Amino acid sequence: MLTRARAVTGWAMAVAVAACSPQNRIFVNGSGGAGGAGSSSTTSSSSTSSSSSGIPACVPESDAALCTALGKSCEQVSGTDNCGTLRMADCGTCTAPEACVSNVCQAPVCADLTFGTTGTPIASVDVAAGTQNIVAAVTPTGSAMLILRGTPCGPTYTAFIADATTPGSLTYTVAKFTGPVGLDINNEEQQTLTADGLTIIATNPAGTAFVASSRSAAGMTDFGAPSGSDYANLTAGTGETLFGPAISADGLAFYYTVKGGTGPDGGAVTPIYESVRASISDPFPAGTLMPAPVTDYYYVTAVSSDRMALFVQQGFSMSVLTRTSVTQPFVNPNAPAAPPILPGFRTAPVAGCKTLVGTCNGGCSNESICTYPAM
Fold this sequence. Notes:
The protein is mainly beta.
């Protein structure tokens, strides 16, 4: 039997028809077997039609068959079918509690949201009593951490970058650094890290735009001149400032809060926005105001690596909102009861939600960075 390569593209890709040589096609002959180009077998009118040249026409497989061949089980994908045609196929929906992750029904990364309530300080990043020790950002694998330290409740802090000594160890080598001009690394909750731990995304000192600064490798502190090209469409209006950035592990989704002013939501002073781009080579488009219940919270501290769980903070309380597809809004999974409550604050999941990293020991004075294991 002839074989064929299958190609899968993302949700937004336009459907095109691929030119295909007869050698890449599978035809069904009259006896139900597979035949190549030039087969002299007589074809059944119920399964094939003939072209004017007498060569049997290919019968496209069903969406379900194409989805199975592509290894996909939910939502729409585009791929090359048995006739060599690149087309869109509807692969259906998932049944809860599974979620559609990369077009495959599977358990979400943060399927279990039960964690120990007693935080254990991370010894390698903890500091002496009387110092505020802030986890400004942590990567999804725990490979790197951005830390701010200073006298309790600031007003300004000194920045440190912490890199894991070995993957998954949550033990770190910590280095102090001076951020480049134009990058705010001296105020709370103005920064985040990309998944590889090499780029800081933060507001500019005025808080009116986001910029990014990268270093050459883990273990280095050579953060370069900031660039705002990826975030040029995410700007503050008159009387507004930007706050609380968070970026997804795949670099496609970006969350942030707008403080002050009235905003397009009609008066909320701290609306949360989401901006989603098709590719990491594209700039983020203008943000979209997120619907309730996200609007009940102050800012996003993190999003799970599969983008199915959103970690949100209000005051010093952490909650989690979930969804079953990136095409759906986040909801309270416990509705009408309160959503899952997490320990600590500034909390983010690491190692596939097996551990939380967040602030413990109260606010300002004696603040530590702690881990909370999954139960």
